[in-house]
Structure to design on (283 residues):
């Protein structure tokens, strides 16, 4: 059993996750203030090969609430039960299962847990070719359901990624400005443009850090900045080559693409999200 808290630009999420060789079960709660203040509770059951069996989601705000049960039977047929109470200016909950009939996975908007299933099923932590998926994407907080085409591509350890490991970019490779960006069917919002260059010289970090050559920034206590342009990782990790960012031991970067959005998501050795640019990072 793992318990994880993710801090988000628009709120926070806590989840308890049970992972087996071929299954995943999770229960979590999230709060957000965008597009309006709401609370979200969910339960997720994924069975053989991490295929979604059931996703139960409830959202609620001032004077309104919604409930969605999304299920997939052993024959591969999806079912939807949705209800709403109160008045709120949001799209209606539910959707047409025919639109995502070929999907094996749900994707709960702004929920990092649901990025884990395709990664583990296809062994993407170990490499391999890009994988294309159709997901049953659940918008939040409205709980509408629609098909979402997504691609996951193995990149490698964070130090192999030019620039910040988790930079969110557009299809041309330019860093995405988060200002005004909205979450689409990918379930995520565009992330920061990456690290900003500092003034000439070194910038001192917290107590116990040591500044590196000109242009570097010292990391957390106990770390040492690397070559120019490199960012030191957590205590005990070493910065990679110039322009790369070292991540925690055993982490893997996988590039996520959906529509015009893409991001380099960092996963730990269990296949759980450590950092999702523009969406969340572990506390």
């Amino acid at each position: 059993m793992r318990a994880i808290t993710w801090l988000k630009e628009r709120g926070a999420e806590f989840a308890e996750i049970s992972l087996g060789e071929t299954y995943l079960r999770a229960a979590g709660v999230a709060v957000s203030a965008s597009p309006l203040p709401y609370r979200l509770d969910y339960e997720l059951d994924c069975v053989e090969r991490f295929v979604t069996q059931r996703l139960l989601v409830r959202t609620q705000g001032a004077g309104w609430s919604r409930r969605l049960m999304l299920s997939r039977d052993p024959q591969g047929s999806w079912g939807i039960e949705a209800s709403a109470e109160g008045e709120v200016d949001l799209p209606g909950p539910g959707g047409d299962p025919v639109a995502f009939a070929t999907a094996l996975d749900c994707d709960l908007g702004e929920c990092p847990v649901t990025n884990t299933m395709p990664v583990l099923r296809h062994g993407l932590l170990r490499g391999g070719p890009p994988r294309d998926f159709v997901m049953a994407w659940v918008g939040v907080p409205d709980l509408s359901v629609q098909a979402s085409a997504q691609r996951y591509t193995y990149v490698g350890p964070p130090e192999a990624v030019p620039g910040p490991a988790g930079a969110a970019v557009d299809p041309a490779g330019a860093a995405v400005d988060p200002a005004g960006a909205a979450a689409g069917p990918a379930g995520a919002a565009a992330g920061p443009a990456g690290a900003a260059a500092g003034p000439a010289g070194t910038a001192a970090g917290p107590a116990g850090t040591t500044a590196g050559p000109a242009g570097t920034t010292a990391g957390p206590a106990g770390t040492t900045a690397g070559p120019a342009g490199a960012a030191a990782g957590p205590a005990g990790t070493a910065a990679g080559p110039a322009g790369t960012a070292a991540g925690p031991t055993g982490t893997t970067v996988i590039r996520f693409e959906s529509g015009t959005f893409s991001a380099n998501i960092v996963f730990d050795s269990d296949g759980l999200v450590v950092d999702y640019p523009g969406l969340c990072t572990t506390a």
In short: Residues 2-152 form one domain.
